[in-house]
Amino acid sequence: MERDEVRRPLVAAAVEPLADRPGLAAAIASAGEDPVVRRELRSVLDSAKVRELIWQAMENQVSDQRFGMIRRSTSVAGWQRPARHRPRN
């Protein structure tokens, strides 16, 4: 978070879905530029338990996406009827 090339894309990604909440987006962007907030964030991320929870959340999201993709593809396959070939006259 201390390096601009790391922090700015992360902050941009965090505020992008908040286009309909400009006040919140501005507060998050401002917090990302505040050195005190960055130090506090760094101390939180130094905790092994917090890092474990973040990785767990990321793995769960990937698993959910994978399961959802499999579920959707099987439902699409289930709706497709086999093509019947009719002899041409």
Describe the structure.
It is a single chain. The longest helix is centred in the last third of the chain and has 32 residues, at 48-79. The chain has helices spanning 4-15, 22-33, 35-45, 48-79. By secondary structure, it is an all-alpha fold.
Blueprint of the fold:
Blueprint: H1 4-15, H2 22-33, H3 35-45, H4 48-79
Helix pairs in contact: 1-2
Mean pLDDT: 79
Low-confidence stretches: 76-83
Order of helices and strands: HHHH
**Number of H/I helices:** 4
Query: What sort of overall outline do the alpha carbons produce when their principal axes are compared?
Result: flat
Short description:
By secondary structure, the chain is mostly helical. It contains 4 helices and no strands.
